[in-house]
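QUALITY CONTROL LOG
STEP: pairwise intake check
CHECKER ROLE: data steward
CRITERIA: each record must contain a sequence immediately followed by its structure tokens, with no blank fields

ENTRY 1 OF 2
RESULT FIELD BELOW
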Amino acid sequence: MVIGGSGVRAHALAGRMFLSLLLVLVLFPLAATAQSPQLDRDYLLIGKPTDEQTPIRACPPEALARLGDGILIAAPADGWSGAPQAVDVFNVFAGEVMISHGDRQICGNMQDARTRDSRFRAGIGMVMVPKAGDREPIRVAWETPLKARWIPTLRLGAPSPVQQTDTLRLLVRTACIAIAIALALSALMGFFTTRDRDFLVYTLATALLVVWQSVLSGLSGYPEPWLPVGGFASWWMVSASALSIAVMGWVLWRLCGGLHAWPRSRAWVRGFAQLLLLLALATPLLPWTALAWLAAGLDHAFTLVCMLALVAGIVSLRRGDYHAVDGLAAVAPLLLMALADIAGSRELVRFRVEAVQLSVTWFLMMYAYGLNRRLGHLRRQRDEMRQLADTDALTGLPNRRAGLRQLERHMARARRQGLPLSIGFLDIDLFKQINDRYGHEAGDAVLVSVADTLLAAVRDRDDVIRMGGEEFLVLLPGTRTDAALPRLEHLRERIARQAAALPHDGLAVTVSIGLAQMQAQGDDLAALLRRADNAMYQAKRGGRDRVVAAGDDVPALSGDPGDGG
């Protein structure tokens, strides 16, 4: 077997990679064993004693000054039981939270996990053990919420179930962000692969929604602050909300078919997005009162966007655009959440962060699905266009351009594997006279008949090519001249018999075929075709209706046989 230089290099590279991987697999466990702690019998002990105190922060005076009156959680009628009590405060989107009982007082901030009890990650909590019979209430206070319905939720109970619920909330929040990041990375790889701008837009939109979710859920401060939110969480949230509504509004309108149903709406949607962008940029300059008004206005704008997207989706479905189902599926949970907020749903208040994140994650999944389905549609269109560009419209055979690509592939494989390759260059005899005597419709029928006969004799329909006019090319991979010659002779006879069945009295169809085999040295595509073409002309000059094999010393022939082919 003959292997080209590139094949040798590829095999050598693969061998080096395999040896390197094997070396890593052998040496890494040895190095890890040398550096890792030794096993102590049937267990592994890691770490060391510490004098670090529990990172629970006392309340600074400036934080206490910003807190409202809060609430007092009263003890039972007969006093506390003496069992541990856990208080968890969540759905706090900005500012400090203070929890106190007796002489214990702590403060925590959702945007900095270092300020919170490590047993509570989705909220700010504290575990205390009041003395049995003690009647002193637990005091909880927080800063004034930005929006009236975005209020804190408090849970009181035994430490274990309270902490488990808090952990479950953390898992849901981190899972939503993890899914969004995975979708963004997948879209980014899609952009690098296809260079389709929509994938890049999706990546940037998802990154924006990840930032928004992180600020909303407090994960921007977990395990340490990785966004410079600080004491400006409300401004961050409003600014990110404006940008997110702009992106989601455009996407929902597009997914629901609004741009197709009302083409002129593109300018309105673009103007709305630009307005939200300006508001997002101006948000850091707004005072608290204006910020609260803007936050409420964004809620109403988001509800309006969802309702308009729903209307667009229904209209698109009535017009037969079933792709709008993607948009309706994306907008459904968002619209339900907006309506539940207007209705003052108690469950939404309790699980607001999780509801928002799950709805946004579903939106991103539907957006990705719609984007990939659109890409699939574009690929099908491209494949159809390519098929049309590479196919002869009359016979359905590959045209000259596609056929030469197929011949190049066969030649490369033949060189790589040391296999023979023969081709037959076929020309219909006196085809001009057939057109003149019987008409072009009969000529087309002859071309189709010849094409069908050739296709029936090969395994791969891509190995029969219409080169143009009345010329065809038959590729015979893995076949030498001595085996190809009788096959082409049989084809010549079948073509004559098949054409005799056409409904035209006196119509006789014969073909002249030139046969050439690829030479091991010095034979490129042009040379191989030239030798087959010369052999076909020799068949013409020899009386037509025959197969002639090219010889190594056949001189190039040119000119017309003088009788129309």
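ENTRY 2 OF 2
RESULT FIELD BELOW
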Amino acid sequence: MVKPFCLSFLLLFFFNAFAQLPVARDTISVLENNYVLKMPWANGINFSNVSNLDLNGDGKKDLVVFDRSNYSLGHFRCFINVGTPGQVKYKADPGLSYYLPQAYNWALFLDYNCDGKEDLFTSTTSGIKVFKNTSNAVNLLQFTLAKTLLYSDYDTTANYYPVNLYASPIGVPGISDIDNDGDLDILTFAPGGYSMEYHKNMSKEKYGHCDSLNYELQEHCWGKVIENGCNVSFYSCANRLQKDSSSLLAWQKVAHSGSCLMCFDSDGDGDKDLIMGDVSCHSVQYLHNTGTIPAALITDTTKLYPNYPNKSNSAQVNINNFPCTYYADVDGDGKKDLLATPNVNNSENYKSLWYYRNASLTNTVNFQFVKNNLLQDEMIEVGENSFPLVFDYNADGKKDLLIGNYGYYVNTNLNARLTLYENTGTTSVPVYSLITRDYCSLSSQTISINNVMPTAGDVDNDGDVDICFGTSSGQIHWLKNIAGAGNVCSFVLLSNPFQITTNSGVAAPQLFDLDNDQKLDLLIGTKDGRIAFYKNTLIGTTPSFSLITNFLGNMDVKGNQNLFGLDGFAAPYFYSEGPQVKALVGSISGNIFQFSVPPNGSGTYTLLSNAVNGYNEGGQSTPCYEDINNDGKRDLILGNLSGGLSYFSSTSTMVDIKNNTTTELEHLISVFPNPTNDLITISISQLDFKSLHLSLYDATGTELLRRESAETSFELDLSTYVKGFYFIRLHFLSDSKNYQLTKKIILR
């Protein structure tokens, strides 16, 4: 039995964990070179895996990009295909990423059970995890864990010797029907060598269908090649090694550094050829298979791929660091195209998704280069990291958008810059137009700038707006505005004039009068997940900052130490709601934390939420919570590690969500039996709605399940969960009004 005190505490935790800001996803028009971007707030793309997946159940293959930028923890970007066959036209739907399982290191969607729905293969400790696509008319996008770890039989004798099927967390295995029998086989580099293992799926042979994921190692050296130092050697391991359990431990001593393998039949002869990308290489290698289906033999390779003579659009894949390729239908014509992206950082970022259209009219391939920024050319994309700031740079009374970054990849280097979008609309209906990707010419400064995290305010009390920005070295630089009040900003760079260097490196500053003395102080988020407070001791027009504490209010936004170590990457945004001061703090995990701040910033800071609105748009989140549309209410812009932005406004139709269980919903919605042993029924009567989004949470606020339905009665099976109490949140969407209701469920 749960004691009343514990129950109250858990209820408080639950509702605090999902504290709401009065904003919802929205859009603002954005122009670049007089072109209106189709999906400006799509969050950016950096280093990614690309797959087809029908996201909305319309029978058309959409695109899912898994951006692996944030340590091992990646984030999905979802793009709905709204084009006609042969047309590349997509609409971003960031909300759909919340319905996909959490993935790590790499993620590919492939149909393993031949039901026409792509399942999810992703990395797990020492191998591969699989989620089955269980989407249907009720659950439009749903995945269920099918295999916590794939195993393969390494013994050629009658003895069954299952061992985890190793796949490097750094690279991407080749998952394809190698033997053309209808089920998915796997090519992966041996953990202790330079050759590829071929693991055959025995589902068809043993069971007559393709859905069992039953693997046996067929050979240690598929294709009779080895790869080392970006080079492939033929006829290696000439005596093809058979599977042998006695040699397994020797193969597992040292992990292969990492390669990406893409299997496809380039010449239509039935056997699988290969494109291989490798860490520390800048080109991919095409491996041509002249063997047979049961006995692959690679006899030719080239690093100039694709290469079609006399065609100007056959540019070879040439990406600075660890290029990987993917086989997916981009234009909806039924033929799979070639996509190339870097697999690690210190490489292309704002132009990092290369698209080659398959123009072949036969069963061969003919990859023709189209662009190097697929999808990215339709969104705000500033390379690696995005740090949004809203301020009026030209004194016209309208708020403009300034974005700092860790860097654009230019000429083999990352260049930290400020990107400026001017509000060319109105105060109430803003339109952002790109002015420059190098505001204040930071790229040409003599000092080394390895990050630009900006904040704005009148630091020196001379009537105009200055900019301070932090760097990865923990210093604060000052762009001093010498234009005077009411004039277009004119900045002079002063290098670390306040002699500030944070104690854990990385400085994400905000100018805010914390102690209410009419002087803008510096609140600096640091790499260790904490916030330093530097008090402004301004005299006249000469600002000076004194360190008060490196651990303001005991605020700490570190992530899971198993994933992020001791890093937190705190990014603060303090704001006032009447007399009450609150703080939003971005974090390495991507969650937004919210704290209440005591008067004058002195005293106990109270955590209100560790996941504001449930928003997580990608790692290293950076909030900007300002009134963008001049309606007297704040709007939210979120930056992230992938270099894009998302926008949530106070005027979005989704803001008007009611939570009145007594007068409007309680008598219309039944959840029974409650308590229950297993099944509960959710029944809705006399409520007009288009769709229902359901989320199930445990007592700690951890989300366990999401479903979407348009039915007025359906069952939910809780039999697989441990006994205790849970919460169901029901979110009803209609044309006229949206509702939200939370119910407590007891499972006994």
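INTAKE CHECK: passed for both entries
DESCRIPTIVE NOTE, ENTRY 2: The CA atoms of residues 97 and 624 lie 22 Å apart.
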